[in-house]
Amino acid sequence: MEEHLNCAESYVCISPACSFSFNMFHSLSQDDFSIKECSNMNMVWASLIVEELVRLGINYFCIAPGSRSSPLAINATRHPLTNCISCYDERSLAFHALGYAQGSQRPAVIITSSGTAVSNLHPAVVEASQNFIPTIILTADRPPELLDCGANQAIDQVNHFGKFVRQFSNLCPPTDEIFSRTVLTTIDSSVYLSTNHPMGPTHINCQFREPLHDSPLTWSTQCLTGLEHWLTDGKPYTRYINTPNLSICTNSDALMEVLEIIKDARKGILIIGRIFSEADMWALSLIAKQLSWPVVADVLSGLRVRRLFLSHSEDLFVDYMDHALLSDTFKDRMKPDVVLQIGGSLTSKRISQFLESCAPIPYILVDSHPYRHDPSHIVTYRIQSSVSQFVAIMFEFEFSKKATKWTCLLKEINSVIEREIGLQIQSDSALTEPYVAHAIAEVVGTGASTALFVGNSMVIRDLNMYAKGSVTSSNDSIYATDYLQQGFHGIPVAANRGASGIDGLVSTAIGFSVGSQKRVYCLVGDVSFLHDTNGLSLLNQCARREPITIVVVNNHGGAIFSLLPVAEKTQLDILNKFFYTSHDISLYDLCSAHKVKHILVRTKQELQIALQRCANESTDSIVEVVSSISKNAEFHCLLRESTSEAMNQAMEYFLWTRQFDNQKNHMPVCRILKAEYKVFRMKLSTPPTSAKTNEDKKDLLRDGLLLRVTLDDDTIGFGEIMPIEIHEESFSEAELQVRFLLQLMNGCKIDALLPLLNGSFSHWIWRNFGIPPSSIFPSVRCGLEMAILNALAAHCKSNLSDLLLGINNRLELRKCVSKNEQRIEICALVDCEGSPSEVAHIVSELVQEGYSTVKLKVARRRTPIEDAMVIQKIRETVGYSINIRVDANRRWSYAEAMQFASAVKESKLQYIEEPIKPEHNIIKFCEDSGLPVALDETLDAITGDFINHLQRYAHPGITAMVIKPSRLGGFENTARIAKWACLHNKMAIVSSAYESSLTLSVYVQFAYFLHMKNENVCKTRNKHIHGGIAHGLGTYKWIKEEIMDQGLKVCVPHIGGKMGASVKDSQNFIENFCWDSGRVLSRFFGNEEIGCYSVKVGANGLSSCFRVKEAGLHTNKIVVVFLHGFLGTSEDWAPIMKSLSSDARMISVDLPGHGKSQVHAEQESSLSVETISWLLQKLVDEITTEGVVLVGYSMGARIAMHMTLNSEKVKGAVIISGSPGLKQKSNRRIRQAIDKSRANLLMSHGLQNFLKTWYSTKLWSSLREHPHFNRVLQSRTQHDDIETLAKVLHDSSVGKQRSLWDNLKDCKKPLLLVAGEKDSKFVNISHQMRTEIMNHSNDGYDMEHACEVFIVPNCGHAVHLENPLPLIHAIRSFLSKVD
């Protein structure tokens, strides 16, 4: 449509597929515009110029003060449809015009006087030309008789800007002897050439004789001849018409050759360069999905930072390609065979160099201009086309949409880099410049209507390299359905990258804000900001725009030179003066002078607060971020080294891969053939130190689970799960989770990247199991990771530490380490019971055995002074040659802890672990006591993002992190905490929790891996290496009876050595571990099968043959019947049923019209909720004589609610995302009509089309983000009787169902009301139902505990599919109450 608009029309795009236009100047000429009223010819021509520009849709005028330009300025400001702005600095004004054009996609007009005022426009003209920004320049000039004669303010302005303008026109002084239509055609031509490809600036030099104001001079209207129609129709004088010139038909041979190359590519890569419009961003997202190639988006493409609506929707983007190229292995092995670049030149020099190194290969460049923008001279096909034209051509051609090994490999690599960069940026306590880029992307991405302007030099490179690629949006309601289906939306980004200068950036950003009509965030450096402080004067003039936030990274100079080779070989004083241009200018004073709000930030938290405040306020703000050139250079260097190391290790793992699964879009190294577990029992010699009462001493037996994972090559890995009393999960609850997970593990492919422990395990769990990793108990996840990692190590014929280190790292780090030295020290653990002398004697014996470090439990005596006396006695006995740690387990108050600290100040403790309970006082304790502190339980309590939580504990007084993998949720979480500790120069102490020697052996290898990684990081960062860290594995002395006859070997390797364990001995134990040991109990669980049969019930001419699935024994007292929702089947409940089958007899059914169930009616019958409930009641009577508990979801929940209120056989119900109906009749009528329409849609358009409509509503937004959503959709097609399915939708509509709200007051049965936390509607309904029941439970029946609401975290409406583990525990707990 855009191609057919005439210039007097405005174009509005309300979605990618819907737009309209209108004539905005139609009435102007008839009522408001009278050319004949002009006082002289200067005013006539000036008014014609302004009017024609307005008719062409150009109404933004940037006017510099001056006398010679008065006719233009006066007429521009008088026009009712213009928007005028002024600035005393022509340079800032011109750049402001460029910004407006970038934001609005329409040119602005610049008006200046003669002389150097024109020359001041030159930098902006160069930028506009190089960056293809349409701009109209009107310069006033002296008449010919005043040139070359020494007249004031007269210079040669003819072709003043040379080849940097698309057209130069020199208008003679206005006269009535020339037809005025000459002026109009000049304007029309200039605008056409400026706004058509290649776009850019055009220059019209306007000569004026005096008078320059409204002084009347007689003039002849004959000069207006030919303008009669123009004066009345309100349209431009000359209308240019373009016709599309690119299609398969008109350019078949050339285009077909290119399209065939694209089609045949095996390793194609899509590069998206500079893109200006949101419509083009949307079109490119379509072509990216069609090609399924990896996408490398430049920061100026608008797709480098994206608003994300669906978590699994934008897998194609490779945001960190620049960092991937730091790896030589990657560069050598990951070269594309075809490059398709759409859009302008790239920001990244490294990517450009890589593409150059790939030549000669087909390199296709698509851009709207014809110029040779190919500095490496590698482009083989150059297509001049708009993005929309080229995308249209691509859609006429058929491409395979199947993801390839190449695409998936690059996606996995991108994930590795993303996690590493995120960890490094978040871990550094300082406010770094890469963090600023991270934070800016976050705030822009979460905003509803935001845009970004980025300066040159360092900031644009940081944004391109370190910004988050996708930011989850909470404002998806404002976007068209097309964007939501795409799953993401680009964010407009502008910059002056034509000539990449640092001048005029503030002014350009303000103009971009006016043009885009969005809330703009501008990121610039301090030198750039100082270069254009005059632009701040524009802020107070631009009323018709959203507020702008300018973030200035102030490192007091030009930081980019510190990253260039010149910094390595140049003296610092020369660098500071001639390269960095160091300064101490106060930005606050500059902002005050311009009356602009200034915010100074020095920390991460201050930056977050400042950006959030700016987002919520309606004022312009300058946020000054204090930085340092030297620290910035150092941190960039560390980032490069850490990401390079991560990349090299990832590439090593990929080289192990021998096969590839295109359907699953990931890199598997092997497959899990089967997973199973057994129960084992272990006996302790004494109660654990965590035991709270003497009663704990009665039973020293500990039950645990042994998990065995067998891979497809028959290699085996073992894992151990053993919750202890300090864990929040019990043994039975852990076993319940394991039963559920084992069903999902069989057949899963194990990714090559799992040993990286950088978030890959969490991603694997989410992708394969479809459950939030946070819902798995810590001890369960630890055992799961242990079994898989051990299996992978066996698969690779390696041990665990070697697997985690990788070959290259292992060889590099062990150049000076022999195999005999591959061991770790172990810290002895002392319970500290007995007198000071007795405890000192025990410690003395441990020292003689070879222990170099001892940890003592404190806070168990009457006073802290008594504990201090024990420490003093130990030092008196053994001296200061050993390390002493103490652990208070948070048992002291602050005053008690300080009392102990004062008494042991001279005892040289290595650290005191968890001295006080209120952890927010831990920093104060460090500072007041002077004692080093270690964290343990504080780490256990952290949920969610570990790194962000850990930042509050970066204080140097906290010297150690005691990390228990079984409490932290496995080795991945533990490794991330250990890495954070290393980056902050803290010890990472691996600690056991009274597990068996199997776990201890794994911990030994894991601790050795952490030690080697720590050494590497310390060497890289020139940090002190903590020598001889003793790990907290001393609990092995508590074990009286092991799983196997011989436990882990712990010993002193040689005379004078220290007590510890070796990697070799631990590996021997793992390799010789026996699954069939006599101490392993007989209870065993593999993959349980579910029985399936049919039952026919009915009466009075209506019957139904139900498909029934069953798990569990018939002898189970409790019978649970599961009822699915609309479009579901009995199979939806299978994993939950298997998990609970040891607790009850589990039954699920295909409801009428669903799955394999069939309905037979002798005459037309309604399949209402009441009818289906009646049929189900007969089914229950047929299956069991016992009472039943119903578990119903959505439609099944409404049926379960009806049966619970009307059947004595129902003993209780779990209502999941269910409602008693609609209270208001009007709402029921509306809903009835909606469901009738839906039923008609199902019948007329078929199930596949219906599913697309059904699952596109807001109710399913959370489910659409689920990695198994497509699998769920496929399961929804398994229905034999579509006609009955549509009838159920209509007849069982909540609009036709009788409301049960009034019946709730009579409910005396246990109810569990369940809803997902993201499903606010049903969360409210659940609470309302409970309130209704409780308000009428005054007859002595205790409904306080019988009716409960359970809100399941991290899920929406489909609770049982999105986050089943918490639901399983809730159902089991409910069944115990019913029982």
From TrEMBL:
<keyword id="KW-0786">Thiamine pyrophosphate</keyword>
<dbReference type="Pfam" id="PF02776">
    <property type="entry name" value="TPP_enzyme_N"/>
</dbReference>
<feature type="domain" description="Mandelate racemase/muconate lactonizing enzyme C-terminal">
    <location>
        <begin position="836"/>
        <end position="932"/>
    </location>
</feature>
<dbReference type="InterPro" id="IPR029058">
    <property type="entry name" value="AB_hydrolase_fold"/>
</dbReference>
<keyword id="KW-0456">Lyase</keyword>
<dbReference type="GO" id="GO:0009234">
    <property type="term" value="P:menaquinone biosynthetic process"/>
</dbReference>
<dbReference type="InterPro" id="IPR000073">
    <property type="entry name" value="AB_hydrolase_1"/>
</dbReference>
<keyword id="KW-0808">Transferase</keyword>
<dbReference type="Pfam" id="PF13378">
    <property type="entry name" value="MR_MLE_C"/>
</dbReference>
<dbReference type="GO" id="GO:0046872">
    <property type="term" value="F:metal ion binding"/>
</dbReference>
<keyword id="KW-0460">Magnesium</keyword>
<keyword id="KW-0479">Metal-binding</keyword>
<keyword id="KW-0474">Menaquinone biosynthesis</keyword>
<dbReference type="InterPro" id="IPR032264">
    <property type="entry name" value="MenD_middle"/>
</dbReference>
<dbReference type="InterPro" id="IPR036849">
    <property type="entry name" value="Enolase-like_C_sf"/>
</dbReference>
<dbReference type="InterPro" id="IPR004433">
    <property type="entry name" value="MenaQ_synth_MenD"/>
</dbReference>
<dbReference type="Pfam" id="PF16582">
    <property type="entry name" value="TPP_enzyme_M_2"/>
</dbReference>
<dbReference type="InterPro" id="IPR029035">
    <property type="entry name" value="DHS-like_NAD/FAD-binding_dom"/>
</dbReference>
<dbReference type="GO" id="GO:0070204">
    <property type="term" value="F:2-succinyl-5-enolpyruvyl-6-hydroxy-3-cyclohexene-1-carboxylic-acid synthase activity"/>
</dbReference>
<dbReference type="InterPro" id="IPR029061">
    <property type="entry name" value="THDP-binding"/>
</dbReference>
<dbReference type="InterPro" id="IPR013342">
    <property type="entry name" value="Mandelate_racemase_C"/>
</dbReference>
<dbReference type="InterPro" id="IPR018110">
    <property type="entry name" value="Mandel_Rmase/mucon_lact_enz_CS"/>
</dbReference>
<keyword id="KW-0464">Manganese</keyword>
<dbReference type="Pfam" id="PF02775">
    <property type="entry name" value="TPP_enzyme_C"/>
</dbReference>
<dbReference type="Pfam" id="PF00561">
    <property type="entry name" value="Abhydrolase_1"/>
</dbReference>
<dbReference type="InterPro" id="IPR029017">
    <property type="entry name" value="Enolase-like_N"/>
</dbReference>
<dbReference type="InterPro" id="IPR029065">
    <property type="entry name" value="Enolase_C-like"/>
</dbReference>
<dbReference type="GO" id="GO:0070205">
    <property type="term" value="F:2-succinyl-6-hydroxy-2,4-cyclohexadiene-1-carboxylate synthase activity"/>
</dbReference>
<dbReference type="InterPro" id="IPR012001">
    <property type="entry name" value="Thiamin_PyroP_enz_TPP-bd_dom"/>
</dbReference>
<dbReference type="GO" id="GO:0030976">
    <property type="term" value="F:thiamine pyrophosphate binding"/>
</dbReference>
<protein>
    <submittedName>
        <fullName>2-succinyl-5-enolpyruvyl-6-hydroxy-3-cyclohexene-1-carboxylate synthase</fullName>
    </submittedName>
</protein>
<dbReference type="InterPro" id="IPR011766">
    <property type="entry name" value="TPP_enzyme_TPP-bd"/>
</dbReference>
<dbReference type="GO" id="GO:0009063">
    <property type="term" value="P:amino acid catabolic process"/>
</dbReference>
<dbReference type="InterPro" id="IPR022485">
    <property type="entry name" value="SHCHC_synthase_MenH"/>
</dbReference>
